[in-house]
Amino acid sequence: MKNKYIDFRGGIMKHDENFKKIIIAILTLVVAISVAFAPPLPGLNDKSMKMIGIIILAVVYWATECVPMPITGLMIMLLLIVFGVLNFSKAYSYVADKVIALMLAGEVLSVVLSKHGVDRYISLKILGFTGESVERVMLGIMLSTAFISMWIPNTAAAAIMAPIAVGILTLFGAEKGKSNLGKAMMIGVAYAASTGGLGTPVGTPPNPITISYVEKSSGIRIGFATWMMWGVPLALILTLLAWFILVIIYKPETKNISETRRIIEAELSKIGGLKGERLKAFLFFLIAAVLWISDPISSRFIPDWTYVVSIMMIIVVALPRIGVLTWNDISKGVDWGILFLFGGGLALGGGLIESGLANTISSIVSRYLSGYPPIVMILGIGLISSLSIVAFCSITATASFSVPVAIAVAKGLNIHPAVAAISAGIASTFAFLLPANTPPNAIAYSYGYFKNYEMAKAGIILIFVSLLVSLVFSVYIVPYVLGISINYLTP
Question: How far is CA 335 from CA 47, 104, 109, 330, 441, in A?
Fold first, then answer.
């Protein structure tokens, strides 16, 4: 009877939760339509009002997930068409944007690594070099998370590394909600999954979104290796800073964990060596990485080399006898919904530009930033982008909104649009504040080692520190790599 009662209560609770989501979805849609067809506010036109309505729907739907996030992406495209902001061909063309090929290849590569345990094997090997110092073990956990997050979705990176971190914490006897080591290590996994994603174009959705808008706004093409020239150092520095901040705020109760190496060796023995299909999968990973990194040379002979390689790798890894995946593996392992989420995000940005709302927002922002040195303007753009994550609760949605707005602001302030876009794109990944901000945070939070405010305590510091570091990269390193004038006055 007890089990039935629990099941019954669980069913009622699930029913109530679904009912709440339906109410939120309907009310938000009514508000969005009402705003869209309301008389234009001063300085706005009909299309701008319709775009505001769509943004309201996108923010609430993405933040509450009252409908699945990919469905929200489709709804954005549908409303852009129905409201007359974009025509059908234009709205749905974003699903076929060439950076979608890059995202899809990253998803497939993630399946390759996870199916054969390569991701876990690499992580454990990195951890093997940390020794038994608690702080070094924590750093090893974070660096491992950051590294694999460069190549697979950050959610998957957190899902792989969180159980390993919990295994070490369990051995130590870290008490949930009380242990400083537990707080620091689990928050560290979440943070490293986000910072590591900055390393490569496939690491996190804001990267390809930024790449797409940079090319459309300035004609500058950013290849795989080009992004890595600033992405990898930035990811490493931010991961180290996150580690340092966490061990200062949540100083571990002990200095050594004597059984760390035994845990790692036990886990490696479960996986087995790098041989057979696992070795083959690892070689495919290396080949993909080398081909992507060769973009600066290869693109001279084959245009859009990064995207060509992406399609090629998807095909090769699934070829019978040659590859390491079946089509069934790909169809089940790839998160196809991200394509609609990604396409909807790009369409949202396209609607912002087409409706003129991006220019309206940029004129307001420019009013407050004009007259300041370029470095202050870039900092302001980054700050707005990083804090927008609180509203959108999705780094994809945040980048989709903030990058096109940043480009419009940059044009109004005579800042190079590529510099502003990259600054906004990088800052939109700074989801360090709350567990709800991004899936890696939620995964780490679900283990119960820290509370909301404990993540926010470290997160607010890391956001501002990260903004200062990314400012240096945006102002000096990115322009140097892209060959942009340092004064940003020549778009």
Answer: 33, 9, 12, 9, 19
Domain ranges in the chain are: 1-67, 99-306
**What is the tens place of the pLDDT at every residue in 30-63?**
999 999 999 998 888 899 999 999 999 988 888 7
- Residue type at position 67: V
Distance in angstroms (rounded) separating the CA atoms of residues 407 and 421: 6
Percentages helix, strand, coil for the chain (3-state, rounded to 5) are 75, 0, 25
**454: which 2 tokens?**
């404990």
pLDDT digits (tens, 9 = 90+) for 135-152: 888 898 899 899 989 988
CA–CA distance from 162 to each of 180, 302, 308, 362, 408 (Å)?
Answer: 16, 41, 34, 40, 39
- Residue 443 near residue 190 (C-beta atoms within 8 A): yes
**Phi and psi, residue 133, nearest 5°:** -65, 130
Contacts of 491 (CB under 8 A, 6+ apart): 218, 410, 411, 414, 415, 416, 417
Distance CA 229, CA 222 (A): 11
By CB neighbour count within 10 A (0-12 exposed, 13-18 middle, 19+ buried), where does 203 fall? buried
Q: Look up residue 211 and give its two tokens.
A: 């790449």
pTM above 0.90, yes or no: no
